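hey all, quick one before standup. I had two proteins in the batch that finished overnight and I want to keep them in one place so we stop losing track of which output belongs to which input. First protein below, input sequence then structure tokens straight from the run.
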Amino acid sequence: MSEIDNYLKQVRKGMRFVSGSNKTSFCGELGAQFEHRGSLPQENPVALGKAMRQVYGIGMFYRIILIVTAFPLGVLSTPMIGSWFPSVPVNLFLLLSLIWVFLAAYYGGRWSGLFTGLSAAVPRIIALILFTIGLDFINQFFDSFEVSEGDIGLVLITSLLLPIVGFFAGGRIRRPD
């Protein structure tokens, strides 16, 4: 392998999760520029790849995976699940949902963070609505459950903050010159 191929391999390593077509076109342009110039740049190739990941964003396949996997995390972070299954760590799943939204926002940008946050928040809001509407039916078969205003407010606030945090955390990285 030549020096150029080794350098481009390191650049590709830094461009992890970027779609294949964007990765191939950027590395092709970079390789042609190096061959024309006759020398390799002195900058870190992995850092260059990470900077290009911030420019291109991650591929659609990875965005879909992040969005789809946020939905079960949102379901498991619903506080009312703790009534029937006390061993489910609801707060841990809420923390995992938040970390997942941050991960999607960091790698995918604002819109990926927003949609991943929505995917985690929607099941929480749906479960809250179903439990508050069906509370009379549930209380016929089980001990008396109740959903207080504090629980409703807490679930709504945390559910609404997931997409908001995902959107605002997904800004592009700005480095001082």
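OK second protein, same deal, sequence then tokens:
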Amino acid sequence: MLDSKALRTDPEGIAANLARRGFQLDVTAFRAFDDRRKSVQVEADRVRAERNANAKAVGMAKGRGEDVSVQLARAEELTRELALAEAALSAVQSEADAWQLGLPNTLHESVPDGRDETANLELRRHGQPRELGFAPLDHVALGEQLGGLDFDAAARLSGARFVVIRGALARLHRALAQFMLDVHTGEHGYMELYVPYLVSASALQGTGQLPKFEADLFKVPGEHDFYLIPTAEVPVTNLVRDQILDATALPLKFVAHTPSFRSEAGSHGKDTRGMIRQHQFDKVELVQIVRPSESYAALESLTAHAEAILRKLELPYRVMALCAGDMGFAGAKTYDLEVWLPSQEKYREISSCSNCEAFQARRMQARWRNPDTGKPEPVHTLNGSGVAVGRALVAVLENYQNADGSVNVPAALQPYLGGLQRIAAS
């Protein structure tokens, strides 16, 4: 959620920033709406002040032994008027909150201009794509030859965009997640968490998935109307919801391995083959809660932590700064890590690392007590995949494949597989 004070004092500046995203903020309509809100607030304050003054006058009149029937009758009228005024104020405030929840985050000044992903800026590359010397298979063909990826069985169970992983590839998938957790906890200082996979609507509202992106979610109807998490970012970031953190507690660094569930609304026809875009997939998610002055240094470190996984797996990748038109709803600045896939002869996203600044914190009422002012202020929140497990499996299969259809196991993963160096069809 944007800063209400900034919206009121500089709506033109906010509108110009959001226009970089392609989002149009109607400043005239906003000013008219804010004037109406102020008018309702003034009326509620006026009635409340009159009621308080009348109550004081009643007390004084009673002390002098005077007849207070007129004042008591007016007190009843004022109570009814105040109830109506407060109801009107509540309604306009709810309307204001709903409107604000639909506004995306403002962009950091360093975010490059551009309308779509074609304008994203490549910052750096690491590693060179391997010269295979043969026509590479994609991960689907490799997985089927190895007897490890079964999309037909998953379709019988659940429909399209699911997979059953078997045998050595299931072990490899598990090894990837365990390896990532060990690196992030052992080398990067994150605390590992186990979190619920079902969350409330308020949790999703706090991190920005609701109300705008409900079509992308799987809702579980029932007594509580839970939602399946689209990312561990939701439960992990909401751990600081409605809290005022001591300055000495920051930064907080959390990592969690969970499945993620997405309906992929609007993605019909995109990546329908294989594991790139599924309804259920695993991720190792990184979340940091930091002081505002430290959040951009934290973004660089969090991104480097995700990069470390790809470096240790010896997978070629590049780092992209997302342009204004390709930014996610809650992010103020985002880096994407894209891993090389030989079958597609291009880089594909495997991690997205974002600084949300105070946007999520305002929605969650997550604050810290600034020792310089002694007052509670919004924290800054960051998140990133460290990394997507399924896409890492895809990248390992394709980059480590051999001409005979076998797949070498990256050296970093061999200890997790009992020293296994190669996976071949049985």
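Flagging for whoever picks this up: The domain at 117-423 is CATH 3.30.930.10 (BirA Bifunctional Protein; domain 2). The mean pLDDT is 96.
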